Amino acid sequence: MSQSYNSIKPNVIDDEMLQKAVEEQWPEDIGRLAKSEGVDLKNVTELQLGFRNILQIDNLWQFENLTKLQLDNNIIEKIEALESLVHLVWLDLSFNNIEVIEGLDTLVKLQDLSLYNNRISKIEHMDTLQELQIFSIGKNNLTALEDVVYLRRFKKLRTLNLTGNPFCEEEQYVLFVVAHIPDLVYLDFKRVSDTTRELAVSKYHYLIDPLEHEEAQALAQLEEKLAKQKELEYHKRAFVEYLNGSFLFDSLYAEDTEAAKLAYLPGVDDLLQAYPSKDFVSVCENLFNYGLKEYEKREAEVSEFYEGLHEVLTANQQEGSKIILDFENQNKERLDEIHHATTYNIAESKRAEYNEDILQLSETLMTLEIQTADQLEELIKDFEKNIAVIASTFIENVKGIYPFDSVLVWTSEGAFSLTVFYTMAQCRDLENRHHEKLLEISINTLEKSVKNELDEDLPDDVRELLVDKTTLVNMVNASHSVHLLKIDMRECDILTNAYRWQASVTGKAFQDEIDRNRNRVKEIFQYIDNLQEQLDNS
């Protein structure tokens, strides 16, 4: 059921073996050329390493574009060192000594996997192989028919080979497998008939129905999780993630051990209840909504810029193509005139005329490119200015440099606009006011404690604070500092992301244009050089 060690010394996958394998799988003439000039292993898409007495998989990281790998008929004991082969579609590990399925997590594109004739006793560790269509694991040590249920997760699996495993001897083996993998087309090299499928469903529906119910629930949970992740990514792009609720406020107290003690003081609980629900969370939620609106503005500005960019480039391409097409329509005729000239002087005259036309074409194309580059430079500079205004407005509003919202208020005398601030500065202001009230409560409680006027039953570690004013004030201030630091850090995150976005989006626009212009000039030079070469050879 597996490969035996023979008298030949086990091999390791070294550079010499890999080079030889690459040369052998190519035609003889190409193989000789590869041997003389060397091969860039990044360009190799298929590799055959079967029948080489390999004991351990190693040294394959260079084949980063490999799609097909044969490691069959060796003495491999462990699946390993394949994590870099992320483009692998076909993998053959048959006829080895593998005991555990592992090391396949990154091979998410794998469609065809053969583990035939090994020592595997359990089907496992394949969750990421969602593209799997063909799976061969016959002639192994699979004894529990229930292991087949694991394969239900592979919705694209159509061909399965299990023959030669101990559980294949069970009377209901085929019906059990077909019932649990309903989309299977081929099992053990035989097509699954409609009759077999119907019998399988009829016999095992009592097992399948609960499974389908569980899978439906799991799918619903997964879809909900993915929807939340998608929503979170949207919020992150708007720089306001976790501001739509009490997340920031909760974080103020998450690691504040001092606040937990102070919460026992009389009146602090009421203070805390009023603080988040009425003010702090409201500020965060309004800042969150503002951030989403600003994100849409940013996206609209970027979209409008690239639409304008596309219009300019399209016009340039159309005009350039027309110029070249007009020239090409006369190109063959000019070369024929030179070729069929009756005298040397006539040929030289025609050649000089054609050379002048080529120079004129070069000048025309370069002039067009300069005009286009100037247009795009102006467009990008305007874009840079607009982005700067959008970014600075957002940043200033978040910091609270000036108000960014207003509401219409109705009174008996009519309506008027009321300016509203929803900024990180207001979060700090709320925290400062809360701190003042907390400090006042703490000192009052201390004074009552000193006078033995404190009726409340407090924990011992809290009562220990009510002895020394300096200690108590320091504790309240320490708690306050933690809260302000959390607010500052959140503000810093928002501002940093805004600055990075501004630099990234404008930097990309400038760099893309530099690259485009460089490539276009290179294209023109290459085209003109080609025309000159044709002229020289005429």
Automatic annotation (TrEMBL):
Subcellular location(s) per record: Cytoplasm, Cytoskeleton, Flagellum axoneme
Cited InterPro entries: Cilia_flagella_integrity, Leu-rich_rpt, LRR_dom_sf
Record PROSITE patterns: LRR
Gene3D superfamilies reported for this sequence: Ribonuclease Inhibitor (3.80.10.10)
Residue ranges the record marks as coiled coil: 344-393
Signal peptide feature range: none
Alphabetized Pfam families for the sequence: LRR_9
A GO term from the CC aspect: cilium
Keyword Translocase applies: no
Keyword annotations: Cell projection, Cilium, Coiled coil, Cytoplasm, Cytoskeleton, Flagellum, Leucine-rich repeat, Repeat
Family indicated by similarity: Belongs to the DRC3 family.
Protein name: Dynein regulatory complex subunit 3
Organism: Anas platyrhynchos (Mallard)
Lineage: Eukaryota, Metazoa, Chordata, Craniata, Vertebrata
